[in-house]
Amino acid sequence: MSNSQMVELTVVEPDAQAAESVVPCCPPITAGELSVADAEKMAAMFKALSDPVRLRLFSKVASHAGGEACVCDISDVGVSQPTVSHHLKKLKDAGLLTSERRGTWVYYSVAPSVVAAMSAMLDLRG
Amino acid sequence: MSNSQMVELTVVEPDAQAAESVVPCCPPITAGELSVADAEKMAAMFKALSDPVRLRLFSKVASHAGGEACVCDISDVGVSQPTVSHHLKKLKDAGLLTSERRGTWVYYSVAPSVVAAMSAMLDLRG
């Protein structure tokens, strides 16, 4: 991947930050057709969970004692610590995790409203 | 897309058929760490929803009258009909849609157990 492509990825961040602070859309998929804007927002969230290692890390944070975890807690997934950090940052950029730096480590927790919105969107019972 | 690539996509089908007939894993992500095998299975499903056009098409099928739709019903998403068919096939291969050919058209409906499993996995209330 060229440097210019790396820069392109970074440009996406402001939107991702916005996703963290606002409860995202949407009504259940059975309720009607998603708008273009809502589909783009939700597709980015599903994309964050579309990598097996990232999904495992997400489950490790979500199920960790106290509801939060740092890289130091969850690095046993068969990839390097920088790769773990990279995946956690992607989950944060997509709005699925929030983070807080304390001392040396950044602690991650699940963003409940965002994950609940994804779950509700796929809930066919309603 | 070349013919050889089309053939490659077809090879994926046996696994996809299995995904359709079996309710997939998993417990809520807060319940514990996903296994490698479960993470791979679920990541593939989330990947199917990680494209905005595919997600819109999925919502169109899910919300269509009678709970099913063919390409002829849902082609107004700004891409060509072959592209719509390609996206619907990807959703089917991932186990999120089932299909039935009737006459000229293939009709797609949501695979309720698969989508419910994705929703349940992201349900933080339990």
> First CA to last CA of chain A: what distance?
44 Å
Q: Structural class, from secondary structure content of chain A?
A: mainly alpha
Shape of chain A: elongated
- Helix count of chain A equals 6
Order of helices and strands of chain A: HHHHEHEEH
Biggest beta sheet attributes of chain A: 3 strands, antiparallel
Q: Major sheet of chain A: order of its strands?
A: 1-3-2
Low-pLDDT residue spans of chain A: 1-21
Rg from alpha-carbon coordinates of chain A: 15 Å
Mean residue pLDDT of chain A: 83
Helix coverage percent of residues of chain A?
Answer: 40-55%
Q: Show the largest interface.
A: A-B, 39 and 39 residues
Subunit arrangement of the protein: homodimer
Number of separate strands of chain A = 3
Q: How much of the polypeptide of chain A forms β-strand, as a percent range?
A: 5-15%
Which secondary structure elements does this structure contain, and how are they paired or packed?
The structure is a homodimer of 126-residue chains.
Chain A: H1 3-11, H2 13-21, H3 36-48, H4 52-63, E1 68-70, H5 81-93, E2 97-102, E3 105-110, H6 112-121
Antiparallel strand pairs in A: 1-3, 2-3
Helix pairs in contact in A: 4-5
Structure description:
2 copies of one chain form a homodimer. Mean pLDDT of chain A is 83; it is low at 1-21. In chain A, a hairpin with a 2-residue loop joins strand 2 and strand 3. The N and C termini of chain A lie far apart (44 Å). In chain A, helix 4 (52-63) packs across helix 5 (81-93). Chain A contains 6 helices and 3 strands. The relative contact order of chain A is 0.18. The first copy, chain A, has helices at residues 3-11, 13-21, 36-48, 52-63, 81-93, 112-121; strands at 68-70, 97-102, 105-110. The first copy, chain A, has a 3-stranded antiparallel sheet with strand order 1-3-2, covered by helices on one side. With 126 residues, chain A is mostly helical. The longest helix of chain A has 13 residues, at 36-48. Chain A binds chain B through residues 29-34, 36, 39-40, 42-44, 46-47, 49-56, 58-60, 62-63, 110, 112, 115-116, 118-125, and chain B through 29-34, 36, 39-40, 42-44, 46-47, 49-56, 58-60, 62-63, 110, 112, 115-116, 118-125.
